[in-house]
């Protein structure tokens, strides 16, 4: 007599087995697993998916939004879907994001204190009280949150961290410190931290060279061996120089079409080279981008035609490997807008350096929420 098959109840699987399986899967599959049943949702609480290899976009809720304190996540490998984070609390909605690293966000609250938050797990690291908080400054004073320049690094396992920020003068703190410590002369407009070499690259005003600080010891030391030419924006670099008549015509058109532009620095996590990046927005809504590297002999910036198998995540200021990885486009720039109030969907895209065309994001990304800010970030980043 045939033995009847026993019906399997998947909700009764051993929680350790469920976690073991889903830790080998991607974030999106882990998210789906949590929706299967309540026992899986409990088992997968705090479960970390396999190392992510692509940038995600995070959209922050409007500060006056009382109905939601969650962020919206767009994961490029799921083109037609968006995800919501857990409820991050009323204080989070009122805070401003200054920088990201991996899954972590560097946030500034309304009392001018900084803290680090992981929106995927809800983990929070409080930082020492800033001078701005100690002296009870308010946004009506001479500095606004959007004026602050900062960078962040966090180790997911040990929770070691480094935060550098400029609040009228540059300061830093790291795990174990109970206060902020000053370094450098200030006037920094951008900071990029490269963890493998433990170097902080800073850009000052236009026409100043890049400066480098080593954070290998307790006190940061300026690295004078790394010499870089002045970082400046020259709009004529977008024009042809081989034909004077054509150059003059293009220059006239270029000036008429000009709307806005920005200057950045970035660091390749592959070659460790410093890059200069310039972009321009035109009235026709056309975007122009140029990427430069330093000539090793002449010590001048020269335009590079391609990033090769790397992609540039401009919000973090680094390039990452993008060869044969679904969900990330090689030789491209991931861009989220011209200023810190990045809430224009037309300014959030992937720019292809091969075709010089933008790749807009799916409409579902922006129709899902009214957002106040957007950033590309990189959960699982360990470079």
Q: Quick recap of the structure?
A:
This is F-box domain-containing protein. With 383 residues, this protein is mostly beta strands.
Layout of strands and helices, then pairs:
Layout: H1 15-22, H2 27-34, H3 38-43, E1 56-61, E2 72-74, E3 83-84, H4 90-94, E4 96-101, E5 104-108, E6 114-117, E7 124-126, H5 131-134, E8 149-154, E9 161-166, E10 170-174, E11 181-182, E12 190-194, E13 199-203, E14 208-209, E15 211-214, E16 221-222, E17 230-231, H6 244-257, E18 258-268, E19 274-282, E20 287-294, E21 301-303, E22 310-313, E23 318-321, E24 332-335, E25 349-352, E26 357-360, H7 363-367, E27 371-377
Parallel strand pairs: 18-23, 22-24
Antiparallel strand pairs: 1-2, 1-27, 2-3, 4-5, 5-6, 6-7, 8-9, 9-10, 10-11, 12-13, 13-15, 14-17, 15-16, 18-19, 19-20, 20-21, 22-23, 24-25, 25-26
Organism: Brassica carinata (Ethiopian mustard)
Domain F-box: 13-53
InterPro entries: F-box_BR-signaling, F-box_dom, KIB1-4_b-propeller
